[in-house]
Every structure is written in C-alpha cells, then in structure tokens.
Amino acid sequence: MDNLLHLVALGICCVGAWGVRLLQPLNARSASSSISGLALILCLCASLIPGKEKPAQLMGDSWALLASLVGFLNLLSIPRTKFLSPGQTSVLTVALLFQSTAIATTVFPSTKQLQILLVIESFLPLLSPHLLPQRYKSFPIFQAIVLCLSSFNTPDFETLGKVLQVVLIMARLGLFPFHGTMATLGKHYGFSLVLPMILSPIPLQLLIQVGLPVAPDQPYHGTLNTFCLISLIYFPCISLVQTDARMYWVYLTMGIHSLVVMSLNQYHADTIATGLLYFFATWVTLAGMGLVLRSLESRFGRLDIRHYLGLYPASPILAIGFLMFSIGCTAFPGFITFLPLEIIMHGVLEESMPSGIILLLSVSIFSAGNLWVFFKLFSGTREISGTIFQAKKREIITVCFLLFIAVFGNLFITKIISQTTERIEKHHLQKPAISLQ
Amino acid sequence: MNMDPLILQSALFFLTMAPVLLLVALASLMIIPLRLPEPWIAFLVKTGVILPLISLAAIGLELILAGKPQITYAPFEMFTLGKFQFEISYFIDIKGISFTLLALSLAYTIAFFAQRYMHREPGYLRFFTLYSLFVAGMTMVTLAGTVETLFIGWEMVGLSSALLVAFFQERIMPTRNAFHLWLVYRVSDAALFLGMFFLHEAIGEVFFQTLLEQGRGAVGDEHKSATLFVAGLMIVVSVMAKSALIPFCGWLPRAMDGPTPSSAIFYGAISIHMGAFLLIRMAPLIELFPSLCWMIVLLGLATSVLSTIIEKAQCDMKSILAFSTLTQVGIIIAEIGMGWEKIAMIHIIGHAILRAYQFLHAPSSFQEYKSLQESLGSYSINQGSIQEIPLPFWNNQSLYRVGFFRGGMDEFMNDWLLQPFLELCRLFQSLEEILFCSNNTGPNKAPVPPQGGSHG
User: Fold this and answer.
1) B77 chain-A contacts, CB cut-off 8 A
2) Which of A308, A413, B186, B205 could form a disulfide with A364 if both were Cys (CB 3.0 to 4.6 A apart)?
3) Is the pLDDT of residue A63 over 60?
C-alpha cells in the first residue's frame, strides 16, 4: 500500500498515453500536460507522506518526483509547431510513457525490475519512428539480449552478464566509448523525446544497484573510473567543436553523467550522496537548458552555432533562462548544484590528485563552453520582427519553475546531503562486498 | 562605547545581505514580464548600495570606538560532511573595511553616473542586474571570513565582468572579447579552487584568520609546508589571471568593450585591484615563502614595465587608461611582494579613485583636449609618447613594436595554449566521425528563416 499513489500515477500516465492518441493534436497537447501534471501531483503527495522509509532504494521517491517534473514541463512547453505536420500525437504518447517508466522505478525498485524497465524504456522511441535513426533500431534488441544473458546465474555467465550489464548502462548514460547510440539519437531524433531519453533516471538507478555492493578494491571500480576520466577529457573537448547547439547539449549531458558516475564510484558515503544530489540538481538545470533549446529550435530550426545567431531580441526570457541554467549546471554559486560539486571535487581530489584536476578542468571547460554557446545563440544581429517569436506563457512558466527549484533548492540541500549520507552509511556500504571477478 | 547588539546585527545583515537581495530582486524583474521605470530601477540599485555602505561605516565606527580588532559574522550554519567543511561567513577588520568602503563608495558614485549614462539604453535593467551581481560578489570577496565565501564572490565578480563586456550583444567583437575574458577568469577560478583545497589539506580549517595563523605553525612540517607552498602558488596564479599580470595581460584592453561605467568600476577601480587585495589578505601565508614573495615582486615589476611600454603605443583612450592602470597594479603587486601591505593599501585606494574618475571622464576627454588646445594655442596630445623616451642602447622603434603588439602576450597564449587545445578538440571530433560516422559538418538543417521549423 506504500506505493498506492505511485501506482495510481503510473496508471493515469499509461491510460492517458493511450487516450491522447484519440484527440485532436492541440487538445491532445493540453490533455497530456494535464495528465502529466496530475501524475506529478500524486508523486509529490506520495513523497510528502511521513514515516515511509525504503532503505533498499536510494533517494526513494525523488526519482519519480523529479522525472515527473521534467516530464510535465516537457509536455507543458511542447511547441505548437510540433503539430503542424500530421501524426505527431505519438510524441505525446511516448513522452507520457517515458514518465510512466520513471514512476514505475519507485514501484518496482529491484534490480530485475529495473532491468526490465530499462529494456521497455529503450523500446519506447520505436513507437514514434519519425526521424528515428537507423542505428538506434537494433539497440533495444541488443539491450534485451544482454539483460537476458546477465540474468543467468551460472558462474560462467555471471561475470560476463554483469560486465555486459555495466557496458549497457554506460551506453545508456553515454559514457565513452559507448556513447555513439545516444549521440546519434540526440542528433537526429525529435528533441521532445531525446530529452526524457537522455535524462532518464533508470540507468543510474540500475548502476547504483549493480555497483554499490561491489567492494572498493575490485577492478570494477578502477575500470569504470578510467572510462569516466576518459569521458571527462573527451566530452568537454568535443563539445567545444560542435556546430549544433543541440549536440553541444547532448555532449554536455553525457559529460555530466560521467562526472556523476565517477563520484558514485568513489565508494565513500559522502561522494555517493553528493553524486546523486548533483545528478538531481543537474537534472533540473540540464532539462531547463534542453527545454529552452527546444523552444528556440521550434522557432528557428536547428541552431547552427558556427555563426552568431542574435536571438536575444526575439526571446530575452529564453536567453536569460538559458544563461541561468547553463551557469547553474556547472555549479555557479547560488545554484543547487554548487555545494554537491564542491564536495565531489574535494572528495575526488583527496582520493586522487590527477583525477581531481581532470574533473576540475572539465568542469571549467564546460562552464566556458556554456557561455560560448550562450553568446553564439544570443549575440549578433538578426532581422526578426513580430511577436510570434517571443516566449509563450507555457515556456515562461517552465523556465520560472525550473529556475525556482535550481535556486531555492539551496534551502534544503545541506539537510538532504546529510540525510542521504547517513542513509548510505547505514544501509548500503555495510553490506558484504560482492566480487566481480 | 559599544553599539546596541540589535543595531550591530541589523548593520551586519544589511551589509552582507542587501547586495544579495538587490541582485535577487533585479534578476526576478528580468524574468517576470513587469517593466519597472528607469528611475525606480536606479533607486533600487542606489538603495542596495547605500545601505551596506552606511552599515559598514557604522560597524567601522564601532570597531574604532570599542577598540575591537575585528568582527566575525556567520549568517548561515556551518555545513560539515566528513572532512569537508563549508561556511559562508564574514570577517570585518580594518583591511576589509578600508577596501569595502572604497568599493561601495565608488559603486554608489558610478551607479549615480550610470543612471544617466545608460538612460534609454535597451539593456538598462540588464546592466544594473549585472552591476548588482558585481556589488554582491565584491562584498563577499572583500569581507570573506572563509575561503569558500571568497571563492563564491570571486566567481560572481568574474561572471558579471564577462557579461558586462558583452553588454552590447548585437556587436560581435565585444562578445568575442567577453569570451576571452571568461576563459582567463576560469583559469583564475580553477587556480583559486585548487589553492583553497590545498589550504584545507594543509591546515584543515575554513576560517581565514585561524587558517593563516596556523599556517605559521605548519611550516615546520615538511609535507604541510610543501602543500602550503602549492596553495600559495595557486593563489598567485589566480591573482595573475584576475589582475591581468604577465602573461594574462591581453584581456584587459579587450575588456574595454563594455559600457564606460562598468569599465570604470571593474578595470579602473575595483575588480582589477581584487587580486592585490587577495594577496594582502593572504600575506601571512605568502610571507612564509620568500621565493613566492620574490616571484610576486618580479611579476609585478615585469607587468609594470611591459604595460608602460604598451601604453605608449596605444591609440585609443580606454586602452591607454587600461595599460596605465596595469602599470600601477604591477607596482602595487610588487609592493605586496616586498611586504609593504599598508603602502599597497593606500596605493590601491588612491589609484582606484583617480582611475575611476579618469574612466568616467574618458568619453568627454577629447572635447576637453580640444578646448584646451584652442585656449592655449599649442597643446600636444602626444606628450609623453614612446619617441620621447631617452633610450641609450635600444632602438625606439623596436620598443614601439613591442608596445604595438602588446608584448606578444596574446599571441603567446593563443599559440601555446588555445590553439593546441583546439587542435586536440578537433582531433577528438575526427575520432568521433571515424568511430560513429557522425558527420559534424553542421546541423541536419541550416537555420531556417523566421517562419519556424518543425524540429521542436
């Protein structure tokens, strides 16, 4: 009964996803954002119920709550231009189904259930095949096979299965060198669906469940750390030579994922807790950045950042939102990301000086790159007239809401970090370590 | 005489929180579609600056009359997680009061000037929002009680500075220059962060005062001493970038693209001296290592000499003023390296006031020269040019060339740091194309005209 509200939210999302297909496109847009908002309210109510502690799952209801929030804002601010071409309501259906899988992680938190959810989620883009890259189409099947292999319990297959599983999670989070599928998806697919797919909470939840019980001296941690470090060198560099704002965002997201994985991989309660909180915090800011980019793309097409696009006069609020989110995701003081990243950097620097310096440099490069993209998008001159390009109410609400969380979340961040650290020390790091060898 | 504790607490609150509240108010106004008239915005800004100024004056009086050496104020609780400690706290002593009084007085004067100077400018609110970000950051840096507080303020000053350089966003050059400035400031921030980390590692304290006092005791321990030296070195690197010392001096003339009031407060008065102020704050640590002191002296003198030469070859008012400023900043830094902190402080105050006036006066100076020329009959603007320097052994033209190319500092940074780094980025991009056949010749579709696309 603990999860009744989540179950209701899940049901509403699934039924709603089927129902919106029957409506007219613009009615469907309003209906889907209402359904998503209702599910968000239910998740919020569920997280406010006191005395409900589920030590098995780190951060408990927060996954569903934040994923629902991003899902709701994604649907709320989905642009009208999306519906100019026929048959686009499938986007709304898929977006609602993404939200329902995120809610389902709270209802079904065991490793096996999360694996199934991960596979289901990777099949969702196939429901909206418009612009889906060919490369992606075989990915869900490959994922299903890998997870089947990993479920074998014989000693011969166990290690191989676990390794494959970690590789798969890395591919979903976009860690080097398995980031190709996510990068291709980000490049070609509709932004409204790229956003929940890339910012999905399931791979990280699964990584925690697979990785946390592994003892710190195992090769698992060393190998994963190496991949994270390479990612932290590779993604900031590659993001700086992008010519498309959306691809910059994709590489930025993957870089930040590698930073999170690295902090989770330190096997200290404080870095794990702050890594998780940094993930949640950047979820808000990256979603904000992505939503602003999507709004701009809906007006001006793909944003070629080889030139100065001069979009500031067209939509100053989106420009301010983009600037705030972009400085927020690289932990500018005053944002919810600041304290978690400070702790992560201190933790990693203490553990290994070269890794810490790489981390610091990559954050600095990302932060420089964020301002560079901001300048490319909003500086310069462009002949723009008419009020059609100004930010719509839905978009202003989205920007304000996310900014509110990104700034005023600071009031609670210290308390949450302390509580999460205690919880990890109590329930997760005292388990007997499992060897991957 | 002791001030009533309630009044003292209120004064401390206004001193530390008024600039932050002003920033929040103006930033909210930028997002909320509510148009406030210009006089109201200016009134808000002036109130947000005058309140901490009055509060600081009152606290300063209290310190003098009660004979207290300092006051510490922590508006928030300390956060501790394992070895990690984080606290935002303020440390108000005579050094902090002197610099903050100067900074807030100039901030008020320049806000008053900007109220009219920026009249009917489309980005009026944006200018004052960024200005308030600077005031908030500057207050945090100058009154910081912990290294974390200082770091927060340091970043805020950096961002406001870069965004104000790019204020005229319809022009591309200011934007490029702002990005250049932002890159240098990121180096400064990263170095300061590392310095902060090493200080924690060596001493395990967050408070400035105890941290620096305990630093003396740590010198005996070889490991701690080495860590402290690296911390000091990182702080010097951070100061080099922030105060445009060699080899980072290329950003200073580029930063002149912003509006005149911001140039005055940033590069004439306060921001450019912030590195010197940090060195004054960290003097007890730096004095422990004579090699570091000598390095600072040499850096300061070299910057001073080079910027004097460059200044003589400049042809626009703001660049001349920028390099003149740098000459003095170099001398101030050298003074700190010699251990003459009080002289350096007096030098900072005098120089900041004079230079702020010169920057504000710059737009009308040519008119003034003209009228001076007309009334005197013959008055040469070219007085003091490079040709007039008596050089016994070096060709004036070679010197002019050094000045004209600004000592080759920009080329050095570009050829040895930026270009190799970009080459590496391009190499990674080629690797990406080979691995994943992701052709990065541009987005799928070129930006479409304003009729709108369907890629949302």
Assistant:
1) 414
2) B186
3) yes
